[in-house]
């Protein structure tokens, strides 16, 4: 951002002159409320402690209640839409089969896309990992002498640490999605794949904007805040030399790609500057236009409970005098495709429905996962990027299966979470205390003799153990639970007494 613009935007009198947004609804004065809980603490390659960050989120009741309610509302709207479509389950089956078919023939479809896209005038690049992706994009930007790039929301660029990389290279990135822009200004990652700032109260946003663009810190009115951001960001968007988008669906047969947004921000990024770069994961391929409607019907209904996104834009080639580049990124996807149990995660269309329904996600916030992908989809994807760092994540689930039930492409999410737990155990990626406890429990539970012998001991321990042995800092189990009252007799004892036989 140029100094001139910074100076102009930080002048509070400028934002107080807003024309229609400020006047359109009654300004809401912010109250003194709890500060926004921050995400997981990251310590290099050490395992992320999701439960620690979740505890801090829960300790902020206003944020927790708002987050839970907002996401549950999305889940309910999704259900309503789903019930309005008789063939919903058929659509899910179809979507799953199309994805499975495409992934099984991915090399052919990728080549088909490259051939057809090139014929359309698109320059296609291949990136094996995040570093290569960033280098390719930087090279394109350097060739066009780009200092400012506008960009629509893309989880792939989060994976690649794109913003941080470009900041070091002196290229300014401006997010065009409002939620993503809020997160950028607050120096936070998106907390949700569809609604990146959903964990923030309006007063949090007012604080961020007051700090960064000079808006009134006491005015948390949504219209006012949106208008402030619009006025602050529009000049930056109009003066950018390049635009970047992702791509929700890549059509091999036509060599085209499709973006779905509600704000039209992908179109802004793609159409304002003459240079358009699209960074897309290789798993986004589908065969062609015949298959597209299946996903378009499912995506927005699953994500936000709306029949369709406001903008479903098809990109076919560069406009006259412009250039269009597509960077197809692997970054671990080929490896995942070879994982017998975990390849179905590649079917994901990033709708966020599994997050909206997950009781752990709703009550702990996406940033508590300390990874690019949060919630149920994150639990099954993140360990493929770094098993050690994300080894705790598959335990952040109740395994209730709700994520699997809502997934529009029928990914067996909860089964994969359970498989990850087995996988982690097999690879020794379990904390020592848990490992010791599970080993002891395994031995007791696998021996009827030991199991029966342990019951009186357990009952006695429940009755007589000193309080501090259960409720202490080391025993996380005891933090939010009351120990049950020990029964007078077990079912086994009752059965033997009343039926006279061994159970
Ligand atoms: S795993 Fe399924 S429900 Fe979750 S984001 Fe992906 S497509 Fe949506």
Automatic annotation (TrEMBL):
Example GO BP: lactate metabolic process
Domain 4Fe-4S ferredoxin-type stretches: 338-366
Keywords per UniProt: 4Fe-4S, Electron transport, Iron, Iron-sulfur, Metal-binding, Repeat, Transport
Matches recorded under Pfam families: Fer4_8, LUD_dom, LutB_C
Annotated spans, Disordered: 1-46
InterPro entries: 4Fe4S_Fe-S-bd (IPR017896), 4Fe4S_Fe_S_CS (IPR017900), FTHF_cligase-like_sf (IPR024185), Helical_ferredxn (IPR009051), LUD_dom (IPR003741), LutB/LldF (IPR004452), LutB_C (IPR024569), NagB/RpiA_transferase-like (IPR037171)
One MF term in the entry's GO annotations: metal ion binding
Compositionally biased residues, Basic and acidic residues: 1-13
Superkingdom of the organism of origin: Bacteria
PROSITE patterns reported in the protein's UniProt record: 4FE4S_FER_1, 4FE4S_FER_2
Keyword Iron-sulfur part of the UniProt annotation: yes
Keyword Lipid biosynthesis listed: no
The name this protein goes by in its record: Putative electron transport protein
């Amino acid at each position: 951002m140029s100094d001139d613009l910074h100076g102009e935007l930080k002048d509070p009198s400028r934002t107080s002159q807003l024309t229609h947004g400020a006047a359109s609804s009654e300004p809401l004065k912010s109250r003194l409320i709890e500060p926004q809980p921050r995400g997981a603490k990251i310590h290099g390659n050490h395992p992320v402690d999701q439960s620690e960050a979740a505890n801090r989120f829960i300790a902020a009741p206003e944020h927790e209640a708002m987050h839970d309610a907002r996401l549950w509302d999305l889940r309910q709207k999704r259900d309503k839409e789903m019930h309005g479509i008789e063939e919903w389950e058929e659509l899910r089956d179809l979507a799953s089969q199309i994805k499975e078919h495409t992934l099984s023939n991915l090399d052919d479809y990728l080549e088909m896309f490259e051939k057809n896209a090139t014929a359309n005038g698109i320059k296609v690049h291949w990136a094996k990992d995040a570093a290569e992706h960033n280098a390719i994009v930087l090279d394109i930007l350097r060739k066009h002498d780009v200092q400012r790039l506008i960009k629509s929301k893309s989880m792939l660029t989060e994976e690649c640490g794109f913003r941080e990389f470009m900041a070091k290279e002196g290229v300014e990135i401006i997010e065009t999605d409002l939620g993503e822009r809020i997160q950028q200004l607050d120096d936070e990652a998106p907390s949700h794949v569809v609604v990146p700032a959903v964990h923030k109260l309006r007063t949090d946003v007012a604080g961020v904007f007051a700090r960064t663009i000079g808006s009134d810190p006491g005015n948390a009115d949504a219209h006012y805040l949106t208008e402030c951001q619009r006025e602050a960001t529009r000049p930056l968007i109009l003066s950018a030399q390049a635009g970047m988008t992702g791509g929700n669906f890549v059509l091999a047969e036509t060599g085209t790609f499709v973006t779905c947004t509600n704000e039209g921000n992908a179109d802004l990024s793609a159409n304002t500057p003459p240079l358009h770069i699209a960074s897309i994961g290789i798993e986004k391929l589908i065969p062609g236009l015949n298959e597209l409607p299946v996903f378009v019907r499912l995506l927005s209904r699953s994500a936000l409970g709306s029949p369709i996104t406001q903008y479903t834009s098809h990109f076919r080639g560069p406009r006259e005098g412009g250039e269009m580049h597509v960077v197809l990124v692997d970054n671990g996807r080929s490896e995942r495709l070879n994982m017998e149990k975990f390849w179905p995660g590649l079917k994901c269309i990033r709708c966020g429905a599994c997050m909206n329904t997950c009781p752990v996600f709703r009550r702990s916030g996406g940033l508590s996962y300390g990874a690019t992908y949060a919630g149920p989809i994150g639990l099954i994807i993140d360990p493929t990027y770094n098993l050690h760092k994300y080894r705790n994540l598959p335990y952040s689930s109740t395994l209730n299966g709700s994520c699997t039930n809502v997934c529009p492409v029928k990914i067996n999410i909860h089964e994969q979470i359970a498989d990850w737990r087995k996988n982690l155990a097999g690879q020794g990626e379990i904390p020592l205390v848990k490992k010791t406890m599970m080993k002891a429990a395994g031995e007791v539970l696998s021996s009827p003799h030991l199991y029966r012998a342990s019951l009186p001991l357990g009952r006695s321990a429940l009755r007589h153990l000193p309080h501090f042995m259960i409720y202490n800092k080391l025993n996380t189990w005891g933090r939010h639970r009351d120990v049950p009252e020990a029964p007078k007799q077990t079912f086994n004892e009752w059965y033997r007494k009343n039926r006279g036989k061994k159970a």
